[in-house]
Design brief:
The protein is built from 20 helices and ten strands. Helix 1 packs parallel to helix 10, helix 2 crosses helix 10 and helix 11 packs parallel to helix 20.
Length: 499
């Protein structure tokens, strides 16, 4: 397709000036409107070398309020970035609601420049395309507007621009040996770009091809496309508000009959399992020593680990985490307690705050509660829509798959106790001055919704327990048994990974 694009498109100076006089104030107004409507915008510039990305980005941001956007240039991965899944550096740079982020090259580097340079093999290439499509779908499903531009020039035009840059000492640094190499293999590299466009042109994030021989024409096309997309986004936002009002009204109507055929995981858990104190102490000492040794091996071999703990209030998450980390080098792990999102976190995709805290290679990240709040607390308490929590099963699986593809060991624990045991522990906390801080009115309110939470947990376990990120249900009525099961599970998983 790219070789058939007519690259001789031009725009006269007078026509260009007239277009800019209309487009620039229009864009300025739309930026303010998107800010008010809390719409996050991501604009991606990809294309052939010397196609004018920098110049055209400058043209685009000219009429914008600089307080409302940020531009990132994507270069080769730094050493720090190599220690994370490849999308980590982009997740951490996403805009909050109402702001604009512009990427001068982006996540597509993995399937273009890195592929051409031999850094991305076929297996990684396919994984990367899947992760990119999932990433963009997750963002757009959550309300982010993604606008993608691909800039095209001919081989001859590229050669001429390289020559002009090389002829000046002030600009010669902008042309690298790899740029020249891609020009010599123009057709081969063009085919790689063609494949990328075919595999990532989606309805939720489609590509706009920009004929960039004439920069006035290219600038006018880009500004016009951005303005049109933002106008559409604002209209969609209004439609969404109307639909939300209708959905809120529907909530007041009689609930549909619930069929009593839901699959249960928790219903088959044997909570009578226990250990004596003597056996517990002996096993604990041995397992903690083994984990300490494995922790050192993980660091040497640069294996990242993510451990997520969920469970009933008073289910023993804190006690299990303490025994797990007690003998570890504190420089090599972080425990992340997760509570309700703050205002900054609420202004991003709900997974954004977890990407901030995923470990670099060789380190362990422990989450005391996690991203599964979306399909439990947020679902039950109405903090997200039904569409959002149902969509979250797929989004969470995709995120965990991306971690696993990078080589991360992912294990998720559900600390399970029965309702009677929870009540006993709640009362014990209330009566013990040293533990009263652990019990709140919210704990009792959540307990009143036990059946709803149990149904949500069963559904969560069924939809998100995978081979690459399994759920482990821990029989936790007996704290000794629960802690040892957690440690044994972690030891076994790490030993298998290190083999």
């Amino acid at each position: 397709m790219l070789e058939k694009v007519a690259l001789n498109q031009k725009m006269g100076k007078k026509e260009y000036k007239e277009a800019m006089e209309q487009l620039e104030p229009r864009l300025s107004r739309l930026q303010r409107a998107c800010r008010s409507a809390q719409i996050p915008v991501v604009i991606v510039f990809e294309g052939l070398d010397a196609a004018g990305k920098g110049t055209l980005i400058s043209q685009l941001i000219g009429p914008l309020d600089p307080r409302g956007f940020q531009v990132f240039t994507t270069q080769k991965e730094t050493e720090e970035e190599k220690f994370h899944p490849f999308l980590w550096r982009f997740w951490t740079r996403l805009p909050e609601k109402g702001r604009i982020t512009i990427f001068d090259r982006s996540w597509y580097r993995r399937v273009l420049v890195d592929r051409f340079d031999g850094l991305t093999d076929d297996a990684r290439l396919n994984d990367s395309f899947e992760e990119i499509n999932s990433f963009e779908r997750q963002l757009t499903d959550d309300g982010t507007i993604i606008i993608k531009f691909f800039l095209v020039i001919s081989k001859k035009e590229q050669e001429a621009r390289f020559k002009k840059l090389l002829d000046s000492k002030a600009t010669s640094w902008r042309v690298s040996k790899n740029d020249i190499k891609r020009n010599k293999h123009y057709d081969e590299y063009l085919q790689m770009n063609e494949e990328m466009l075919e595999r990532t042109d989606q309805a939720y994030a489609h590509w706009t091809i920009v004929e960039s021989t004439d920069r006035e024409y290219a600038a006018a096309k880009i500004l016009s496309a951005v303005a049109a997309r933002l106008e559409d986004a604002l209209k969609e936002k209004q439609t969404q508000k109307i639909l939300e009002k209708e959905q809120d009204a529907a909530k007041d109507s009689p609930e549909a009959l619930k069929l009593p055929y839901a699959t249960s995981v928790l219903g088959g858990v044997d909570l009578s399992r226990s250990l004596s104190k003597e056996v517990y102490k002996e096993k604990l000492n041995d397992l903690q020593k083994r984990i300490a040794i494995l922790h050192s091996e993980l660091y040497k071999k640069r294996v990242p680990v993510v451990l997520a703990f969920e469970g009933w209030d008073a289910g023993g998450k804190g006690g299990a985490i303490k025994r797990l980390t007690e003998k570890l080098d504190p420089r090599g792990y972080v425990v992340n307690p997760v509570c309700a999102p703050n205002d900054i976190e609420k202004s991003h995709h709900y997974l954004w705050r977890f990407w901030q805290n995923f470990p670099k290679d060789g380190h362990i990240a422990v989450f005391d509660r996690s991203w599964y709040g979306r399909v439990m607390v947020e679902r039950i308490e109405g903090f997200c829509s039904e569409e959002e929590w149902k969509r979250a099963y797929r989004e969470i699986n995709e995120m965990e798959s991306a971690l696993a593809s990078h080589g991360t060991v992912v294990i998720k624990f559900w600390m399970h106790i029965d309702k009677d045991e929870q009540e006993r522990r709640f009362k014990e906390r209330q009566e013990n001055p040293e533990k009263q801080w652990k019990i709140t009115d919210e704990d009792w309110r959540n307990r009143a919704k036990w059946d709803e939470y149990e149904a949500a947990v069963d559904e969560m376990l069924i939809h998100t327990s995978t081979t690459y990120a399994p759920w482990v249900v821990v029989e936790a009525n007996d704290k000794y048994y629960a802690r040892i099961k957690v440690l044994e599970t972690v030891v076994k998983a790490l030993e298998e990974r290190l083999k």
